[in-house]
Queue: 4 jobs
Job 1
Amino acid sequence: MVTEIFAAPKSAPVHAWMPACPCGSGCIDEGDRVGRVRVAARVAGVAGLLLSFPVVNGLTPAGRREPLHRGYARAMLSVLGIRLSVIDNRFADTEPDPNAPHPTAGSEPSRAAKRTRFAEPAQGALIIAGHVSWSDVLVLAAVQPLGFVARADMLEWPLLGKLAIRMRVIPIERESLRELPGVVARLRDRLRAGDRVAAFPEGTTWCGRAYGSLRPALFQAAIDAGTPVQPVRLAYRDGSGASCTVPAFIGDDGFTTSAARVLRARGLVAEVVLEPRELPGSDRRELARRVERAVRGESGSPHRDWIEAGSTRVRDPELGAPRPGHRGGVIPIRAE
């Protein structure tokens, strides 16, 4: 019933509805690495962007800040060595060429990435995606700046907390269910005002090859506001297009450990697939199920290549090949 952006090390749930994830260090790939000089250059680039953003943002007129924020998010991804790939399945003219080579880290953003938006200006939208890493925030903001529903203590984090405040984060106390109706009400008001707000209803981060179910509570805000929901399939891949768990923020990972793994990685690609928008309807559970099917890539497909084990969804190991248009192989995951 709750959502967050940055996951803390996993521990025993505080209450029965507290989201939990079985993913751990065994899920993590190290992948190819860059040298120490490149890592140092990336660290310097990140520091420069974080230090310059408040100054440049303050000097920029409010009406021109959206392109600035989008540019900074893309610059941060570039400095981290993460290539952004955007596939828009909402309109036929933006569908990707299945024979086109897979993008590599460091190359120019695709034409689709440059023109795609979650919604038009002043058009409210609830953006829903699976949750893998702290970098999810940068990836989504690089498509179009937006607000987020996030764990409350993130506002106190050094540097990142200040950025969260500027992004108008809606904080939520994961340990307190009593505060959830207030969060839903704030989210509803933001949507009614024409804001774009992203949420990760799994409630915690997963490795990207296994997933949690989407909790329905936050979908009530879209229903109350009469706002469409934008499902986003978010995945991380290596330079060859295979599924990659390097950016995952799971298990006993601290932020420093996870960030260091990303800074060392070579060829990371963040793939964002925008599926057709879902109308809110009147039943939040039914809406959550519809959006979950879209987020997992199950909409309109006669095949189901994910199986469910409790609250965990993993790729079916009996399927020996990916579906047409799906890059990467089938990787069996064991869920306890």
Job 2
Amino acid sequence: MLKLHAKSDLQLTTQDREGKMKKRLLVILLMIMVFLSGCWDTKEPERMLYINGIGVDYKDGKYEVHAQIINFANVAKSELPPSNQPQAEVGFATGKTVDEAVFKLYHSIDQTVYWGHFSYLVVSEEVLKNVELSPIIDLFIRYRETRYQIWVYTTTDPVQEVLLVRPVINKAITLSKLGDPENSFKQESFINPIDMRKLIIDMNEPSHEAMIPLIKIMENWKSIDESIKAPVLSGVGVATPNGFKGFIEGDDVRGMQWMSNETKRGQVTFKSDGDEFITVNVEKVKVKVHPVVQAGEVVFDVNVELEGIVSVIQGEVSMDELKKGIMKEVEKEIKTTYEAALKKDIDIYRLSEDLYRKNVKAWKQYHKDGKVELNEDSIRNLKVKVVKLESLRKSIQETIE
């Protein structure tokens, strides 16, 4: 009996220990749950303001920063927000550096600013002419909230005016041409958009020149109540790590789209033999550049292949005549752009990079500061060929004669 009694006491002691252990584990779990239930560093969305666009100007030796803050209450639920409420407001501040101007801007902002939706940066002509881009780029990409896919533009118009432009039919401002350029680029590839990642690459690699899309404000839309201003792509501003080389715009910049494999869609307008204007849509561009070293200098052979669609026909015209007209006009536009850029010492087609990629030994021999010397004869051969031409109709004759 004594042995049984002793065993019973031992069992009770073990059960007590297990019970106490379970209680301790329960207490620890409860404490952990209490700590996990709160996120002290989380900020409520309604207590933050969201940056969509930034404009930087330079006046009287100081930077002027313009910040476009968007109202997500108007854009989060629908692509077409209520028209009676502003989608964005723009504030500005000045400083001896861009960083100082940003911090001065915080003085007048009511809530914490969130930079994770920062979509585009606009720099003025004065910024490109008078200061380096590097400190401005560094400031914005070093925020842990920002991304490298921030679109970059330049303008000769007031920066604040660019940020105050609203999309046509009051579409969500996050889907504007500035904030979402790839969408419209698929339909009309006049100027290639550039983000900060591509800008840094172009600055660092031959020929150390970046083509920044030039935005101008035009009042070319109207509603029942008002005229509407819209941002228009009108050319490129060419920036280098050490300065600014100027703008190429208007008809002088049209050749860029035919020298880029990224082109999705463009148009060519020319006169037929019957003295009628014809427009052809170009749906695909394929460019090959072959650098050649001859007689102690570098020249380039360029082949451009196009695929087009004819949608409108005026007068009698043959397929051969259409192809001939397209090739002649595209070749003319490529040369016009090249010559306009050459006057400003701009390697508009980045021919120096082609030599660097395909013959680095020759590039090391002939480059100066990463760039190969170019002249009017540097493009030795330029061949434009229409490899495919279709009509949206079954024939290429006029519908009504």
Job 3
Amino acid sequence: MTDAREFAGPNGATPARHAPGTPCWVSLMVHGPTATQEFYGTLFGWEFQPGPQQLGPYVRALLDGHEVAGIGQLPPDRHLPIAWTPYFASENVDRTAETVRSCGGTIGVGPLDAADAGRLAIGSDPSGAVFGIWQAPAHLGTAVSGVAGTPAWNELLTFESASVAKFYRSVFGYQEEPVVSADFDYVTLHLGGGPVAGIRGLGQALPRDRGPHWMTYFQVADVADALDHLVHLGGHVLEPAHDTAHGRVAVVADPEGARFALLQRQR
């Protein structure tokens, strides 16, 4: 559960361009952006500044001046699942969108320009999980990683990993590394020799009210402390903190129901 992309550190180094296929941004569309900003601002220490408005009101979240995520407002008449959406880097969004369609996925938004920041599309894989594609002439994406309050990992929760892994391999050129286990269906997606995302097959244990979906892990310094803050702020604990090979993890939801995970790295 590491990230092979290059990023800016806390010292403010200039962020490098993300290699095609690497997760480069996460974005959340909600009905109440003001309350959502207060929730995540308090939980992760984020501040906010205006971003591109092509899809409606939108802000970028900053941690110590570095961009880490985006929050936008859903149109009042759109009753879509509230969920964090990962964006994957592309050198040509239009060409990647065509590949998505030819491989059995769909494109629901775009491709379109986000002012002068870049070009985007939002699509879904054949199982229905939503993801974004980002082409970055100006806004390179998440500019800091490896510290509390930043995205640490993206994981697709779906029915089974094999067929959907083939889709992502065809679209983004990933190499797959399955976890060999009789009772654990998991594939790690690799680029350039390093892991960039994961696919977990849950079978009938997949939440019926969500269907297949991507989930973002955010790094925290102390997961127990973060859970206390989250509950006080109106969030919900879906899976209590538990130890994994990559650290201590808890699955939670914000007040509007967006699911995400908290990750306390092993020391």
Job 4
Amino acid sequence: MEPGQDAALAGPDHGPDARVRAAIDRLTKQVPLVDRLGQLFAEAGHRLYLVGGTVRDAILGELGQDLDFTTSARPDEIERLLRTVTKTVWTVGREFGTIGGQVGDWQVEITTFRADSYEAESRKPVVEFGDSLDGDLIRRDFTVNAMALSLPDHRFIDPYGGLDDLAERRLRTPAEPEISFTDDPLRMLRAARFTARLGLLPNPQLIAAMTELRERLQIVSAERIREEFSKLLLTDRPRVGLDLLVRTGLADIFVPELPALRLERDEHHRHKDVYSHSLTVLEQAIDLEKSRNHEPDLINRLAALLHDIGKPRTRRFEGGGKVTFHHHDVVGAKLARKRLKALRYAGDEINAVAKLIELHLRFHGYSDGEGGWTDSAVRRYVRDAGDQLERLHMLTRADCTTRNQAKATKLRRAYDELEWRIDELAQQEELDAMRPDLDGNQIMQILDIAPGREVGEAYKYLLELRIDNGPLGTERATQELQSWWQQRNS
């Protein structure tokens, strides 16, 4: 390093405390690659720093498989040096100054010192390469991500008090939040994610800036917003982050259906707080993921959060203080489909979430009847859920937020019975592959018809029989088909 190159960092850097030193020692022993790269870049006359979330997570003892570096080297030189340690190199981020690679178990990204910002109306950040670590760190999103480790000499650099903020659970920006969020409006969504993921409390200035600059989020592409929103939902505690987005008005910009759930109360008409209920359903859906040994599931969480977004449009006041939300499941499914499409979610994700929202009340329709679930009702439930059955189980269970313990116990037992019935019938009838007893070729052969609409109608008729009566067998199915065909054509 040239003399005085990082002089601006010297003041706040009084040397790492014992926990940081211990974290650095663990890191370098666990990942000798960091020193190897540091030596490689130093010998080539460049400075290299481990930086950002990698340093933060190492201090927290939560280091993953990703290693982020920043360097004085330009992208071409980064690529040349990285190729000396691995053949697996990717350059898709070259225009942003980033070269990546896979080195053993570690995914490495090395980026030239830079200072990205948005022009007033641009949807893409302007990339500017810098010449010092100081200029790079002050442009980082939050102080807890503006710590660095010089390599290979292991000097800990924390010019903006990120270590203290991490210890005190504070969320601040290195520069003034108005400058930081103007430079990159997506950081306002990252604030919500770090509030949720790390349990950090945003300071009043940061919250005020998020509120004041929320409209600037409109210049950020839907794809980038979607990715950040999904990362927030996939944290263990997304509620606090979502609530921050709603309180600051940011949610109104990209998912207005969520704040719309805060329905105004009428002194004569009472109903549960739909907004709080939806956040509680999300929390309970996450708990069910864990109890059922599932990985964090974006579709499950989107469905839980959005399952009641049809209620504001369907709310009706009736006599006696009654409030209804008829068909909010169907309306909500359409609204969710439209919103998720605008956020550029994948088609299969959109279809799955919409199906779950549309079906989330189906259990109550069946369970409210006399005598419990018939075999036919169980089959229809399984058929309609399709490959979303397990998620529908979780959503329906999570949707019970009543404080009435007797009612909650009754609903839980009713759903326990339904799942037991599904398992029982599945063992007998292969419910997960439910289809008619005759396929399309058999239908055409028996009825002596060519491919066309009539084959589809016959197939649907036999499927309904299968659902109502269980497996019929080839002989009876043939008789039923011939009888239906004769009546249809008479």
